[in-house]
Records
---
Amino acid sequence: MPIGELGHVGPRNGRETTMDTPLLWHIPLSHFSEKARWALDYKRIAHHRQVLGPDYLIRAWRATGHGTLPILFLDGRAIGDSTHIIAALEERYPESPLYPSDATARQRALALEDYFDEQLGPALRAAIVTPLFRHDPDVALRVLTTGMPDKAYQRLRPLRRIFPAYYRFRHKIRDAKLEADRATVNAALDRIEQERRGRAYLVGDAFTVADLTAAAMLGPVLQPPEIQYPLRVELPPYLQDYRAALLQHPATQWAAGDRVDATAFVCERSPSCGT
């Protein structure tokens, strides 16, 4: 699904993009940005995208009062946090819903969304960057600037001795917690299988925000074929081994599409599928 910078998903219901078209500020290699991108694509919402570089903090603070991405500009509002973005999209664009209509199912889907956001996403980030910062800080910078202009890496490279400490502080990552973080990832994968119980979807018989969030949190490490911003650097053997181990888990196989209809999964991911 090739969407370039300031590109957009094809016109929704025949309408061309306008100055009022939603704009997404995002970072390419970010599971939370991927979650917002996927939600926009799943709903086939025509929108623009703008990649922000490592110096996004000030711009994000000015827009929302928080130094985080993604941020969606929608109907004159700047909406931060992928969960709030999806809630706003559900209200503004109810077509192709991500929230179940049944109140109980909806509550369960939202609880799973929160769990994956708070547990799986941060732990998997730490499980990847901790050994990279420890052994290959230059590779870490190349990974973190995936999909950004080359100047992003060039600007960070002179800071490679101090950037890891800043990044760990900002994301509450502790070098000594690597095994605990990986245990949290494994627990989340087990939770996916417990919730799925062999079914194609986590909640009910339809794709929901719970499925989207689980797969988005895993996207950067799984690197599915349809991912918009694939890694352009070869991972060190110790991370290749970790990735291979994750791929053996039934939950990651499900997220990668091995245990559901692959064509349907890609169609849910791509706005151009079937058109």
---
Amino acid sequence: MPALELTSPRLRAREWRTGDADEMWRLVQDQPNIFGRVGSIATLSDAERWVAQEVADKAIRERIKYRFALELLDGGALIGGCRVHFEDAGNRMASIGMALHVPYWGQGYGTEVGMLMLKMSFEQLGVHRIEALVEPTNERSLTLVRKAGFTREGLLRERILDEDWIDTEVWSLLEREWRAR
């Protein structure tokens, strides 16, 4: 499959490529949890290994992970990442997620990225159901899933350990709901 790339009016979501580690490392130094738990990418070498793994994962025949670098169309600066992961490929169920560098919060980039991920998931990857796990205190992400038409399904108590145990809300969107928008 050729490399996937999606664009919105201001952003490009493209698959990670060799050479992205320096820009990724620049973001991690400023925001240590942007691409995972604090400390998971602690050096430039860690960033190089992380990017190399992403590049290698593209070649897997039965691919279930699609991860993208997010860059501005104007200037090409890397501002974060996003992903679609098939959690149950046989039932065409996937999850989505994104991370933006803090200076880009509150400017509508999250909405653009979310819509790109949904479009790709439903229209290119054949997903039937998408789930988003959102921390109940993450107002920006909650606004995004509501805006996109997701339905809140419930609360998973103390589901994720990230320094402390964190509750997550489960939100979902079905293909027929996406197409009916």
